Amino acid sequence: MSDNLSFSELSDTAKAKALNDFVPFYFSLLNNEELDVMASFDFNHVIADINRTIMDVSNQVPEEICAFSAKFNRDDYHKLLSQLPQTFFDNGNPTTDWREWYVEETNKLDPFATL
Can you tell which superkingdom this protein's organism belongs to (predicted)? Predict the structure, then answer.
């Protein structure tokens, strides 16, 4: 199994897996108002569109919100994932757990952060 692939290097199937695994993580960050690190990589300015979609369907259960957002904002998520310094195995699994990755990236921005 290959590892250390960027999101852009993944097959379409692996990209779909990576996306579907990432969206619930992103949703949890949004709910906890912890999107600072994500925003630092939002070079394509897609976070506002993703968040708007999530807020528009916020009356649904989290699983439905994530599924809808993953489908509706697919291209936005692809743009964001392409910018993140996260690597993946060729099956779409991240090489570093998303929560661990987020703590590491937060520490790079602010070594005194307490996530």
Answer: Bacteria
Q: How far apart are CA 109 and CA 115, in angstroms?
A: 12
1-13 residue pLDDT tens: 578 899 999 999 9
69 neighbors 58 (Cβ within 8 angstroms):
no
Q: What is the DSSP letter of 5?
A: B
Rounded CA separation 53/101 (Å): 25
Per-residue burial over 55-66, b if 16 or more Cβ lie within 10 Å, else e, is eeeeeeeeeebb
The residue count of the chain comes to 115
Cα–Cα nearest to 15, from 5, 25, 1: 5
pLDDT in tens, 49-70: 999 999 999 999 999 999 999 9
Question: Cα separations (Å) of 94 from 5, 21, 57, 62?
Answer: 9, 9, 27, 22
Name the pTM for this structure. 0.91
